[in-house]
Design a protein that fits this description.
By secondary structure, the chain is an alpha/beta fold. It is 57% helix and 10% strand. Strand 3, helix 9 and strand 4 form a beta-alpha-beta unit. It is elongated. The chain starts with a helix and ends in a 7-residue tail after the last helix.
Length: 257
Amino acid sequence: MNKKILEQIRQISTELRLPSLRKDIETVIADGLKQNDSYEQVILSLLTKEMEQRGINRDKVRLRRACFPQLKYLQDLLRAELPEDGRNKLSELESLEFIKEGQNIILGGSPGTGKSHIAIGLGIKACKQGYNVMFTQVSKLLTQIRECHSTRTLRMLESKFEKYDLVICDELGYISFDKQGAEMLFNHLSLRSGIKSTIITSNQSFDKWQDIFGKDTVLTAALLDRLTHKAYLVNMNGKSYRMKETKKMSEPKSMLR
């Protein structure tokens, strides 16, 4: 290989922002010579590697911007341990057709049954398929809304919120809201209604949602109507994953013989 020409190619690839080509050029050319590849095949191999690396980099950026608290993958779920309704509907949900249709998912049920794991797993898969995803806890979202309202930047936040292909709002029901907070959250979530997909996880049944929203029955009914229209309602009541794991850890281990 001509070292001078290789150095020129590296300089040009730097200018053109082709880092993978710059890194792999010697290896690809050497492999091509061994296999007696044509010049066209060598060029195609270099460009393919560049394209693949860019895809990996885009996935990493989308995952970072989604702000997942942990990376919980669908393949790590113990599906046999999921509540029956979650287990039955997961195979349909993981096709991600609900995002194309702008449908919502509400995962409601007992704590520790896999609601957040399913939501994050679907979000990660969506990122890898090119969708822009946002993860947030409901309490943090409301704090952000209040802060933007006080600094008069709420419209900027709303515009960004509307554009996500998928928003995951985790832990609805762990804290209740005052009237102003309930109205703010209602208005914010309504921005996506019937247009873009939202996943909500909650440990409260629908008949208790009015307690979350300051006992405002009218507002609660309106929010439920918008969120549940053509949505997937997944009953996640069952025994806690975490309790099962704790029980296994506390069981005495059998003596080695």
